[in-house]
Fold this protein.
Amino acid sequence: MDFTRVDIIGLSTSPSSGGAYALVLGEVEGNRRLPIIIGAFEAQAIALELEKIQPPRPMTHDLLRDTFEELEVEVTEVVIDELREGTFFAKIRYRHNGDEHQLDSRPSDAVALAVRVDAPIFVAPMVLDEAGIVAEDESGISSITQQAEEASAGEEEEEMGGTELERKQKQLEKAVEKEDYERAAELRDEIQRLEQEEEQEQEQNKN
């Protein structure tokens, strides 16, 4: 499979995603853009390196880079190779002792490492075909982010069928997949409350 090389176009705030950010990647030879919703910590890690700001203590991705260097591991490339139910998946490919290996990763962590070791970033064609957005100019990052959020909202609307408990359970699965653990904890509490209410209702019906 021929992967498409991309560069970082920018980072944009995503208010509707609970304070998250959108990492916007763009084709090196093309006009498609790939927005990926990421957490604030990962966005900060990417932004600090892009701006060449050195924190007083190493961040997690700095530590990972330093560990690789200490072990003489060469990161050769980062690949965003899969999109499942709105969640992106990536691989960190590296060379050690002449052998090629790869690690599963979130795209945000993979990109944060890539900018630190100057590794190229690639995207699988099927991912770009499914989630890529054609941009007419470079000033439309916020517009691209909005389109991505609208598409995500459409997916959530499709899941609104069933009982309230079933909807909450689906939302919980989604939150865990996206590693939004704060939201997952809230949903878990709501599910437990609904389950208790159902049990009480069943007991009352028995009596």
User: Anything to note?
Assistant: The chain has seven helices and eight strands. The radius of gyration is 20 Å. Strands lie at 4-14, 20-27, 32-38, 74-84, 87-96, 99-105, 121-123, 133-134. Residues 181-206 form the longest helix (26 residues).
